Amino acid sequence: MNHRYEPPTNQGETVSTPVSIPVNPEPATETREWKKLTEYVAEIRGTNLRELFANQPGRSGDMTFNVGPLHVDLSKNLIDDRGLRLLGDLGRAMGLEDYRAAMFDGQHINTTEDRAVLHTALRIPVEREFSVDGQDIAADVHEVLGRMRDFAKALRSGSWQGVTGHTIKHVVNIGIGGSDLGPSMASQALRPYLTAGITPHFISNIDPADIEGTLDGLDPESTLFVISSKTFTTSETLANAHAARRWLLRSLADAGVDVEGEDAVKDITAKHFVAVSTNEEKVAEFGIDTANMFGFWDWVGGRYSVDSAIGLSFMAAIGPQDFMNFLEGFHEVDDHFRSEPIEMNVPVIMGLLGVWYADFLGAQSHAVLPYSEDLEQFPDYLQQLMMESNGKSVRLDGSAVTMPTGEIYWGKPGTNGQHAFFQLMHQGTHLIPADFIGFVNPHTDNVASDGETSMHDMLMSNFFAQTRVLAFGKTAEELREEGVSEELVAHKVMPGNRPSTTIMADKLTPKTLGALIALYEHIAFVEGVIWGINSYDQWGVELGKKQANDLLPSVSGSEHADTGDSSTDDLISFYRQHRADS
Ligand code: F6P
């Protein structure tokens, strides 16, 4: 039975009626809708995509939707109208619409941290009003955006200068996880928009090879560091930030700059370091003037923060106007997700399909295959977004989940992936639903000397061919008709019936990228609601961080390893014995 509560009245103008969300909904597996889907699985197993297309002549049109700048064809998924209706019913039964409203309204749906989940507020257009509990969230967001814009303009115009009067040419973001993956991925994706001569760089790993490799060859006088950390306590980020300051002082000294004394260090830090954080105290402790700090809020999860001040380095590189276009893409998808009915709502359908494949058809992973080299980091970005969000095995009330949760996301740009792992996708024994992402127009094309053959057309021919082959394959009869010798027929049969979603857009623009990210953010939300888990905490990463701190004295040799487990103790001893400086 659902216990319901009335949430506090929301002050936001965009909110009309407060919604009530199920506090402790029954597991999805206990619902009538789940049982019906369990029965329906047999129907789908008894058919295939060839038949589904043959039985529904308008299938592609029926199952293709536009969401913001994205054109999404869902027709090559292993589902029919009835299945989609049943999945929609499951969503309704799990309170999806109420949860969605609760998220947009700023209710504390992140229950274990007692926080609102309001990344959608980061892209609220300036003319809209939005307050929660008397706090003018829209004004807060636009105040920070305004400061980010001023800062980005100062860098790009050259009015912000380093300590020796050089303009800034290199902006190095130091952060990890959500404080790195978003701006790094987006800067690469929007490479053609880096027009002001500012090159963004990213340092995340505690492995010294990362900072060494990134700073190697950079001119210290024209380099600015953005220390990005929501908490400003993350050890990797703080260690890299301190290492960056050591490098800067050393390199400036080599260039003849006076780096001695507190005032000199303060002046250098002020001109070459800014911070993005929610933790003013820790930023000041590091020595960054809080006037050079760009804030955000506890209601922005790290993996949902690329469109907050965490995107500062990226904004500096692409410029404020394109950053605003990026936010517009998010917002268009937010509006669609918030208002479209379940059956017409692309993130809802895609999230429900994720549950369908994971829980009813036994899929263990989900491939994302951008046919765009510029989107190379997009699968990595989605790994954190989807797996840190939904890699949970307890429900909101702490009881164990009753079905597999959390899709394993992975992927690589086409066509490279075709020459690596596509064999397994085509003929292996795993069912791997895949999202293909492609663009109609490239930023630059390369046409062969015949004057006709475009490399982008070649790329896209592969894009269309792969989803077609995955879906429809090739039968033994077709192979025999082609004259394939009998002993090879079994080896060459392409089973087909392997599901994919095709996402296309005109061009990889800032707006398109924003829309793509928002699409997956909302997919994660939908899956989390069905699974009954909290998609917005990440307790599973804490113990490893703590133990790394606890082990450091024995790893660095100042203490003897005594963890109580012989494997770890022996491994640390082996490490110490062979460590060159031991
Ligand atoms: O890996 C855990 C995590 O907490 C992520 O959720 C977060 O994006 C990352 O660490 C970095 O955290 P912070 O921005 O506080 O440094």
From TrEMBL:
It catalyses: alpha-D-glucose 6-phosphate = beta-D-fructose 6-phosphate. Residues 8-19 have a biased composition (Polar residues). Belongs to the GPI family. GO terms for cellular component: cytosol. Its EC number is 5.3.1.9. Catalyzes the reversible isomerization of glucose-6-phosphate to fructose-6-phosphate. It is found in: Cytoplasm. NCBIfam families: PRK00179.1. Residues 1-28 are annotated as: Disordered. The gene is pgi. This is Glucose-6-phosphate isomerase. One of its GO terms (molecular function) is glucose-6-phosphate isomerase activity. GO terms for biological process: gluconeogenesis; glucose 6-phosphate metabolic process; glycolytic process. PANTHER family: GLUCOSE-6-PHOSPHATE ISOMERASE. Transmembrane segments: none annotated.
